[in-house]
Amino acid sequence: MTRHPSAPGAFSEPPKKSLGQNFLHERGVVERIVHAVNPKPGERLVEIGPGQGAMTFPLLDRHGALTAIEFDRDLLTPLTMQAASHGALTLIHANVLDVDLTALAAGAPIRLVGNLPYNLSSPILFHALEHAASITDMHFMLQKEVVERMAAGPGSKVYGRLSVMLQAYCEVTMLFVVGPGAFRPPPKVDSAIVRLVPRPAHTVGIDDAQRFSDVVRAAFGQRRKTLRNALSTVMDGDAITAAGIDPQTRAEQLAVADFVRLANHRTPA
Ligand code: SAM
């Protein structure tokens, strides 16, 4: 059997599992995402992982221009060629984790969208958080289970470090669930679209971001332990009490604002 080379501009490579390539093909889902993003004239959209353009081309049709960051070299030529009839695509060949989103924004905030590679969900979310001041909002497709953790509140079994870290800096809203059949190949799990809106910096109230991250990490590192035990490496029981929190409670019972109070508390010298 002779293999004919594909026409230039065609997506010819099979999806790469290692890059989390589950391509969206259900039109109705794409329309719901575009509707949720609802781009307005003059806004700057940046897509993470355009893949074969499932969201890119409809967003270009609607908005006229888009910047996209794609790691897979094999997708660049077909994306560029097919985008030409939809709008102005600026394609950046890079690992999104290496992209300085603040520099990319260059003073004009960006709106992030993406059906993210699920193996990199958390690193991408934390990377985006570092650049939150340059981001207006984010609409991401992620594993449903991850979105549930992101949006969970105190008392929920899935409330944890991801919930607190994201909710401290952003308003987190789960928008809708997407079944595996909307993708090729279908993932093994349900997915969901989440919206994250970074809070204005002056309302976040965290004095020291690193300290906050250390406290939250320690608290949930041993989530079944009392705060007194779980936080022993970062603060003692008296400091927890002085911050207005009972050291006998557990991390999963605390609201985000309680974590902010704990992290901001300084023992007088
Ligand atoms: N947006 C397309 C869609 O909805 O069909 C593709 C989504 S697919 C789940 C994830 C995309 O992210 C793939 O195109 C993959 O090549 C790309 N990707 C994976 N790792 C990446 C990284 N570190 N930086 C940028 N893109 C990446």
Description:
- There is one protein chain.
- With 269 residues, this protein is of the alpha/beta class.
- 35% of the residues lie in helices and 20% in strands.
- The protein has twelve helices and nine strands.
- It has helices at 27-37, 56-63, 76-83, 101-105, 121-130, 144-151, 161-169, 201-204, 209-221, 227-230, 237-242, 256-264; strands spanning 23-24, 44-48, 65-70, 88-93, 110-115, 135-143, 170-178, 183-184, 191-198.
- The protein has a seven-stranded mixed sheet with strand order 4-3-2-5-6-9-7, with helices on both faces. Strands 1-8 form a two-stranded antiparallel sheet.
- Helix 2 (56-63) links the parallel strand 2 (44-48) and strand 3.
- The mean pLDDT is 94.
- Residues 19-24, 48-52, 54-55, 69-72, 95-97, 115, 117, 120 line the site of S-adenosylmethionine.
* Strand runs, count: 9
- Distinct small-molecule ligands in the complex: S-adenosylmethionine
What is the average of the pLDDT values?
94
At the first level of CATH, the class of the largest domain is Alpha Beta
- How much beta, percentage-wise? 15-25%
- Total helical elements: 12
- SSE ordering: EHEHEHEHEHEHHEEEHHHHH
What structural class do helix, strand and pairing data support?
alpha/beta
State the strand order across the main sheet. Answer: 4-3-2-5-6-9-7
The radius of gyration is 21 Å
Largest sheet: 7 strands, mixed
